[in-house]
Amino acid sequence: MTDIVTVREARANLAEAIDKAVAGEATVITRNGQPAAALIPIADYDALEDAADELLAREAAEHLDEPTVSMSEVLADLFQEGTPAA
User: Fold this and answer.
1) Closest CA to 26 of 49, 7, 43
2) How do residues 31-55 score in pLDDT, each as one tens digit?
3) Which residue has the higher pLDDT, 80 or 25?
4) How far apart are CA 17 and CA 26, in angstroms?
């Protein structure tokens, strides 16, 4: 079960919220009535990080066959005379 608490309640009961995370429960923290953050078990966080890494790796793999540009070419384009500054 996910608890929903205000920032004030989270501050007052942080140790309890951490204990719940260790036990596998999430706590959603609200600010001005809107969800602002979540305190989740570290295993869930690690799984989210791994999933994000996998997604980025798959996206990168899709672009491996595309033409590349060297750093010197990028810099030359950026600092080419007559090009207005951004």
Assistant:
1) 43
2) 999 999 999 999 999 999 999 999 9
3) 25
4) 8
CA pair distance 16, 3, nearest whole angstrom: 11
DSSP per residue, the chain: --EEEEHHHHHHTHHHHHHHHHTT--EEEEETTEEEEEE--HHHHHHHHHHHHHHHHHHHHHTTTS----HHHHHHHHT-TTPPP-
Tokens of 42: 């570290």
Name residue, tokens 């929903």: 4
User: pTM for the whole thing?
Assistant: 0.67
Residue 80 has pLDDT above 80, yes or no: yes
